[in-house]
UniProtKB/TrEMBL annotation:
Top-level taxon: Bacteria
Lineage of origin: Bacteria, Pseudomonadati, Pseudomonadota, Alphaproteobacteria, Hyphomicrobiales
Domain DUF2293: 57-102
Record-given protein name: DUF2293 domain-containing protein
Length: 115
């Protein structure tokens, strides 16, 4: 067997949608279902080359929250700020969202008729 035919170790990580959803429900229980789906699709669509699931989800959250839940894109698109300045500007909002999502969402109870 020549050197070129030796097997190489391919350290790759691809996470299934269901595994990512379970992770989000466990670690970010306050995250809205629609956001969880979008984030899980993004994480499960990539190969994370050796990163752990938590790191992959963290990267996707850091992309999703500024672009979907803040004015980041508008600040950059309108050339009001550079990408770095816009990222710094929305950072407190991103941290606030992450903090909210780490807490369980409200539990809704169904009222039962008396009697």
């Amino acid at each position: 067997m020549s050197d070129s035919e030796e097997p190489t170790l391919d350290v790759t990580n691809a996470f299934s949608f269901d595994v990512v959803m379970r992770h989000l429900r466990t670690h970010h229980p306050g995250c809205p279902k629609e956001s969880c789906h979008t984030i899980a699709i993004g994480v499960s669509a990539r190969n994370w080359h050796g990163l752990k699931l938590g790191a992959a989800v963290g990267i996707e959250l850091q992309k999703y929250i500024p672009r979907s839940l803040t004015d980041y894109d508008e600040l950059v698109r309108s050339k009001m700020m550079t990408r770095d300045k816009a990222r710094s500007f929305v950072a407190p909002q991103v941290q606030e969202v992450l903090s909210r999502w780490r807490k369980p969402g409200p539990k809704l109870r169904v009222a039962r008729p008396a009697g």
